[in-house]
Amino acid sequence: MVDPKFLDTNYLVRNVAICTSCNNHLTPINQETKGRTSGNRLYACKSDKCKQLRIKAEVFDNVLKERIRSELNRFAGTSLVNKIKIGLNNDIDKLNKKYKIIQDGIEQNNKKQREIEYKIHKLTHLEFSENNRNFIESFTLFKIDLSKKVEFLEQELQNISKQKELINEVLTNENYWLPIINALKKQREDICKHEWRLLVTEIVSAIEIKKISNQKFKVEVRFKYDLPSFQFTHNEALEEKRGTQYLLF
Q1: Which residues form a coiled coil (predicted)?
Q2: Mind giving me the DSSP string for the chain?
Q3: Which residues of the chain have a pLDDT value below 50?
């Protein structure tokens, strides 16, 4: 689920677009003058390594809208929901496996703690010596370290349980997806900014962008829920001239 405050933005792929050279999210930058008479809104990589990656947001967003909509419309209505449900069930299976691995890790750490407690107990009943004291201190520190690991793993179990609860109680409910399904049925110009943003944040896991040359970029759109990803080449100069068409990869 997406916090509604993240849906109200003029940058469609905020926190979704990634620079493939450094794996950092692209940062929205507004260089427009007052009244929008000049300048552009941009997505830019601000890491020291990749500052050259700058892409015009409005042109790029319009291309993505058409491309994403075209891809998702291949799964009409309930078909898309069914694909999402299959992906969610796969996510549940992965979470269950991860849960079991963490449970086993907790049990192993608890077993080690019991063994250390027994060793400490035996050492405390032996005749005092400097070596025994050093052993007790070392075992005690090791036990504390194991205890912290168990606390961390137990927190991980709680996080997994919350993810499973979200999937089972919210994301598998068809009504949750109705706004997205209905938006896909509309004409492009009738889909509002809020609906586009909801569609992107709920369906797209990442948009990976690599600069090929000046104003030319390789783009890969990765969907959630095991929906197939796709690639295309974004030619910024050409798109500005011809609107919202694109070059397929």
Answers
A1: 143-170
A2: ---GGGT--S-TTTTTEEETTT-PBPEEEE-PPTTSSS--EEEE--STT-TT-EEEHHHHHHHHHHHHHHHHTTS-THHHHHHHHHHHHHHHHHHHHHHHHHHHHHHHHHHHHHHHHHHHHHHHTSPP-HHHHHHHHHHHHHHHHHHHHHHHHHHHHHHHHHHHHHIIIIIT-HHHHHHHHHHHHS-GGGS-HHHHHHHHHHHEEEEEEEEEETTEEEEEEEESTTPPPEEEEEEHHHHHHH-S--EE-
A3: 1-5, 244-249
